[in-house]
Design a protein that fits this description.
two-stranded antiparallel ribbon; mainly alpha
């Protein structure tokens, strides 16, 4: 049986909070997946084009970009988790 709550004009069922948290986790995993792909590309560049300095800079740039993406994704995840917890506490969910 489906339980429905109405709070301040919003209709929420019993699984909406879990879906929101899982969505936030999927977004974090997407950031991690993207950064790992960039790391793999960077190591590919550094492995096969080790003679030229331009490729070394491109590989290092890709590694730095991967780290930035992971940090940004984690910060976004934490920010959204705080908002989810704040919403749950505010509406006593």
């Amino acid at each position: 049986m489906k339980r429905v709550r109405v709070k301040r004009g919003y209709i929420q069922n019993e699984l909406s909070e879990e879906r929101t948290e899982f969505s936030n986790e999927r977004t974090l995993l997407s950031y991690i997946q993207t950064s790992l792909a960039i790391f793999a590309f960077a190591f590919l560049i550094l492995r096969f084009f080790d003679g030229s300095s331009g490729y070394i800079y491109a590989g290092i740039f890709a590694i730095v970009l991967g780290v930035i993406i992971i940090v940004f994704g984690f910060l976004q995840y934490r920010k959204r988790q705080k908002l989810i917890k704040k919403f749950k506490k505010k509406y006593d969910l």
